[in-house]
Specification:
3 strands, 71% helix, 164 residues, mainly alpha, three-stranded antiparallel beta sheet, globular, single chain
Length: 164
């Protein structure tokens, strides 16, 4: 896997983690924001099993999170982890603009919608979410869908480049 693909995977994992936090730990809704409350034992599990995600979970814990705060906190966390410390400075900016990240998060959204009832039945640790998503993504149906999306996308790139 290339360095860029690794960066896409890392950024996507933080975004998936943020979705997981909002899925399982919303305590209340206040206007257009949600209050996240993570029980101490779960927070400790996150610290032990997903050290790189702990700071984000800790910032969310007890906080009211609206769309803007969600974006700014997640982006700041991703930048602090990866843009410079792990990948060359500027890489994360390229990842944000990439079709690869957009496609990954689109698929993740489809998976969440399609599996919401099962995810809601009982608490699933974040690693189980990732395993479930990655298994689903490898199914023939999803692979066929990806192939069709890629064909459409690559066909669009082969045009004359004119804006009509």
């Amino acid at each position: 896997m290339s360095n860029f693909n690794n960066a896409v995977a890392d950024v996507a994992d933080v975004m998936k983690f943020e979705n997981w936090l909002r899925f399982y730990f919303v305590k209340e809704t206040v206007e257009e924001a949600v209050r996240i409350e993570i029980p101490e034992d779960r927070l400790e599990d996150i610290r032990k099993q997903h050290e790189e995600m702990y700071a984000l979970a800790d910032r969310y814990n007890g906080a009211l999170i609206d769309y803007n705060k969600s974006c700014s906190e997640t982006c700041a966390h991703i930048a602090s982890l990866y843009d410079g410390p792990k990948y060359p400075t500027g890489t994360v900016g390229h990842v944000w603009d990439s079709k690869d990240l957009k496609l990954e998060m689109y698929l993740f959204g489809l998976w969440m919608q399609g599996h919401e009832a099962a995810l809601d039945e009982e608490f699933m640790p974040f690693e189980q979410w990732l395993e479930g998503f990655n298994s689903w993504k490898q199914t023939d149906e999803v692979q066929d869908y990806l192939a069709r999306l890629t064909d459409v996308d690559s066909g669009a790139d082969k045009g004359c480049g004119c804006v009509q």
